[in-house]
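Need residues for this backbone.
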């Protein structure tokens, strides 16, 4: 029997996995995606955006500006809401510390309990104040930040060929890629991937409404997939029943 080629790398072997999960930080669940899938998604997105820019550069810039303003406003609201929530908690902690000192002065609270509670309140308050400083700085930075679609257009126009994803293309155009947990609730494995581009953030070109023929074709494919799932469930159920029947027969033979 021939030995396997150790240098050969299969597509399923080349993948990304969540670093937190790999290092047993269970704040994160198992995130897994093949490298080839990520590369195809990035390249497809770049091609679509590039084609949209060539067809309607002004429309592209208007969309980026509108989405940028909307996203910035949403993020600012979330940050300010979090700041107000933390400010209320800091005020609440001030009141708790005051009551704690009063209880200790009146000898209603033992010293060891007083020290433990005081350290806990102080620690929480310090963490909140640090986080508020970070958020306030982020609010100021976000308010000044503006996307620059012109710079993105200039970078895209330097590339004439999008047949493959190169390292320079990835570094110049892509800021980050967020891979979400796979979802199997529909019976099929789907996985959301967010691609953030330099200078424009997350952007997907608008697509025309599908015509009636396209909708019919999508419905036909959906029915075929559903039929396949039903057939697979039936085969699994039949196999399970067959194994259970065989097990029952063996048990009867042993009893005889």
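Answer:
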């Amino acid at each position: 029997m021939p030995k396997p080629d150790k240098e050969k790398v299969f597509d399923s072997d080349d993948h990304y996995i969540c670093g937190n999960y790999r290092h047993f930080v269970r704040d994160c669940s198992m995130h897994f995606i093949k490298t080839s899938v990520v590369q195809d998604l990035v390249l497809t997105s770049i091609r679509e955006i590039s084609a949209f820019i060539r067809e309607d550069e002004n429309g592209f810039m208007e969309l980026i500006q509108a989405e940028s303003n909307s996203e910035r406003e949403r993020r600012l609201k979330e940050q300010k809401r979090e700041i107000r929530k933390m400010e209320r908690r800091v005020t609440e902690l001030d009141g708790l510390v005051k009551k704690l000192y009063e209880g200790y002065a009146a000898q209603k609270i033992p010293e060891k309990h007083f020290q433990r509670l005081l350290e806990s309140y102080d620690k929480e308050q310090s963490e909140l104040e640090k986080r508020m400083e970070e958020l306030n700085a982020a609010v100021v930075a976000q308010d000044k930040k503006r996307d620059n679609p012109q710079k993105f257009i200039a970078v895209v126009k330097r590339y004439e060929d999008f047949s493959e994803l190169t390292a320079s293309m990835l570094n110049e155009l892509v800021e980050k890629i967020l891979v979400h947990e796979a979802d199997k609730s529909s019976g099929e494995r789907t996985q959301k991937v967010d691609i953030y581009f330099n200078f424009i953030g997350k952007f997907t070109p608008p697509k025309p409404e599908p015509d009636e023929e396209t909708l019919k074709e999508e419905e036909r494919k959906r029915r075929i997939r559903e039929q396949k799932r039903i057939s697979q469930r039936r085969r699994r159920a039949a196999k399970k029943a067959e194994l259970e029947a065989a097990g029952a027969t063996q048990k009867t033979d042993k009893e005889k």
